[in-house]
């Protein structure tokens, strides 16, 4: 699970239903599987949090022409994350891609480490329990759960991509329509 957070192409949706299958066989305890998966998820998220905390804002400001972000844009993003960040971290653990990516803005906005860790462990624990439980429930058909969740991941990623592109188009249109902008 640690690797899944650092390298999102390795999805928990493929690994944890199999762990649930092993739990169903009696080869692995549910609590052990859940604890290991949640610990791995949390440690991986903490590594990305550190990237955001100690490289985030200065790195973005250094490369602002590439990202097309100003310091004012970052201030607004920080204010928004300060208001909504807890919910984003907690529930973001159940959304493909966002599961890993949310750690960086949490670090960059200086979300308290203890709060980040608790929310990450809680959100990851819920998601991991669901996936392990699904593997237990379907037994030898755990690969069907992985395929179904792979479809869910693809749909969610597609929706996120559409949202990001829509927000980017709206933002660029707004920047171009302001006086003094090209």
Structure description:
This protein has 182 residues and is mainly alpha-helical. The protein has one domain. Helices cover 82% and strands 0% of the residues. It contains 9 helices and no strands. It has helices at 2-6, 12-25, 30-62, 64-67, 71-92, 98-101, 103-108, 113-138, 142-177. The chain is elongated. The N and C termini lie far apart (45 Å). The mean pLDDT is 77.
Highlighted features:
182 residues, 9 helices, 82% helix, mainly alpha
Main sheet: strands, sense, barrel: none
Count of the separate structural domains: 1
Pattern of helices and strands: HHHHHHHHH
DSSP strand tally: 0
Class per helix and strand makeup? mainly alpha
Number of H/I helices? 9
User: Tell me, what's the shape?
Assistant: elongated
Low-confidence stretches: none
Beta-strand percent range: under 5%
CA radius of gyration is 19 Å
Distance between the amino and carboxyl termini = 45 Å
Mean of all residue-level pLDDT scores: 77
